[in-house]
Here is the input.
Amino acid sequence: MLSQLRTSTARSAASAITRVARVNTVRTFIAPTVSRRADFVQELYLKELKAYKPTPIKDSDAVGQVQTFTVPKTPKSPEEADLASSLKEYENMAVEVEGNEGASASTPAVVEDWLVDEEEEEPAHH
Here is the structure.
């Protein structure tokens, strides 16, 4: 009895495996797997990419799209025309010295010591 049970389960298992195998073969035949679909799309893309021929670029294609470059005129400096008179005016200017505004040229300016180190008072001892 036990041997008959083993034989029947073995047969049913074998028949189940063959049914699953048949279904899988039929399914792969009807609906391709994802990897095969990707290969098909990739092959189609590569075929179209190889067949693409871009139009050659001509020099006349840029006409109307880009402005022609012209070098701008060099600007004229406003000081160039009056340079000699400006130089004479500069040479004749009086020299201004800070702190010597009210004093005459014959008396020397008093130099004040502006950096004075004040002595600190010592704190008272208690």
Summary: The chain has a mean pLDDT of 75. The first helix runs from residue 2 to 30. Helices lie at 2-30, 34-51, 83-92. The chain has three helices and no strands.
